[in-house]
Amino acid sequence: MALPDNLMVELRGIVGTQNVLTAQEDLISYSFDGTATLQQMPAVVVLPTATDQVVAILKLANQTQTAVVTRGSGTGLSGGSLPSANCLVLCLTKMDRILELDRQNLTLLAEAGATTQAIADAAAVAGLFYPPDPGSMKISTIGGNVAENSGGLRGLKYGVTRNYVMGMQAVLAGGEMIWLGNKCVKDVAGFSLKDLFIGSEGTLGVITQVLLRLIPKPAAKKTMVASFPQMDQAAETVSAIIAAQIIPCTLEFLDRTTIGCVEDYAHIGLPLDCEALLLMETDGHPAVVAEEAGRMEQICRDHGCQEVRVAKNEEEADQLAAARRTAFSALARVGPTTILEDATVPRSELGRMIRFIQATAQKYRLRIGTFGHMGDGNLHPTVLTNERNHEEMERVEKAFAEIFDETIRLGGTITGEHGVGVAKKSILPKALGRETIRVMRELRRSLDPKGILNPGKMFD
Ligand SMILES: Cc1cc2nc3c(=O)[nH]c(=O)nc-3n(C[C@H](O)[C@H](O)[C@H](O)COP(=O)(O)OP(=O)(O)OC[C@H]3O[C@@H](n4cnc5c(N)ncnc54)[C@H](O)[C@@H]3O)c2cc1C
Description:
By secondary structure, the chain is α+β, with helices and mostly antiparallel strands. Helix content is 37%, strand content 21%. The chain has 16 helices and 19 strands. Strands 12, 13, 14, 15, 16, 17, 18 and 19 form an eight-stranded antiparallel beta sheet that branches. It is globular and about 70 Å long. The two termini are 22 Å apart. Bound molecules: flavin-adenine dinucleotide (FAD). Residues 33-34, 69-77, 80-81, 92, 112, 134-136, 140-141, 143-145, 147-148, 150-152, 201-202, 206-207, 328, 417-418, 421, 454 line the site of flavin-adenine dinucleotide (FAD).
């Protein structure tokens, strides 16, 4: 179905004809995100280049009750930017300027469509550091990162996107522009609405600019990989490192299936005769880095590791980190459909959760590779399947239902970083409880009474 002609004329008037896409071949690229098996064509894609255009578009959409699905780069893994039927996709990628780098206050102001990598690079040029590094950072936008409260490989020591957002400019469903937060280190004036918008998945407003906190760049870094004959030993090593009060910036793991796929893909020279690999990175003052690296190596050996490989230089460190960064792409080459999940448990339950995932894969005869942010308790069981095989897809569904039941039972969460979108919508009430959902629903309704923003996402 198409939107009325007069609406299209007004949209072209706001952003220019070249920034309104309606041809089927153009719309196809916006009909899915990074989530497997979900696709829906939008009615139109609009690419604004400035905040006043976003204001005008939302005023028009609100008047005509047109559904608006805000989109960054579409790398989301829960269907958050999947179009709804007959909607307007509001894609922010042309609003990608770095607006200010304030060296006195250590902040950076960027438009929402700037990539995470561009932000990290701009900070680095000034000798500063923007730590959140989702695996998708080369293409994901900062607006998408804020809307999903994305994590990354450095989350254990440095936290997630929320920890770096000081403020934002946002446009509400009715077209009102608001500023939330500021450059102050402390601010308790009123409710922290910026925190409400972080992780709101495009349901409360459109984020148009983001003010970020930067930190000094760590002086030194050491990267190492340890291989283990048993998964439990890797999980116990993680617990022992934390118990020893070492907080490395990265503590990631790959299981045997993932190691095999990564090695096939990236030829890094990873050991193939092991059940688990831990990628560990420590950064900070050179003396502390050397001491922590030595202690972590010893803890690995005490827990039965086969081998510890310490990167000799920056190039080798990047290569080892790439083993983890390419995990999703490497697994995705193996089967036609790759479903990447996001089960997160308290770190004390990691071993139990990993064993449960392995047993569930066996029970349902599925190929599941698991990798993830082990130091955060955030696991990505990834099933390699084929969406055309309906019988297998039924088994996949049953397996994940059991995995998420177990996650909740162990005191975990159904998503540590990928969000709810449409993928987790049905299990959100089970995870949060009906009263919590009611409060969220009322908050959403008060900001978007006509329900035009990302309808059908998170909850109906
Ligand atoms: C290979 C790969 C690796 C990944 N690794 C990680 C990882 O390590 N950690 C992690 O957390 N995630 C990861 N992801 C998931 C994904 O990249 C993140 O969720 C990312 O933040 C999405 O950014 P995006 O610009 O692509 O947003 P999109 O996918 O376009 O949108 C995501 C959600 O945000 C909303 N949104 C987007 N922009 C705005 C805006 N300006 N205002 C309001 N709402 C908006 C959308 O409506 C949607 O609900 C990975 C994905 C891939 C494909």
